[in-house]
Design goal:
The chain has about 50 residues and is mainly α. The chain is built from one helix and no strands. The N and C termini lie far apart (about 70 Å).
């Protein structure tokens, strides 16, 4: 393997890890927003 191939492999690895991190962050943010909305709605509804 030449240096070029190693650079390409490293770049792809960084891209994959970055994408995974971004997806996890977006998922966590969405989950938190949904949980907050649910908590607000639960508070608004009268407890039966």
């Amino acid at each position: 393997m030449g240096t070029g191939a190693q650079v390409v492999v490293a770049a792809v690895a960084v891209l994959v890890v970055g994408t995974r991190l971004a997806v996890a962050l977006c998922q966590a943010r969405t989950d938190a927003r949904i949980a907050a909305r649910r908590a607000r709605e639960d508070r608004r509804l009268p407890a039966r």
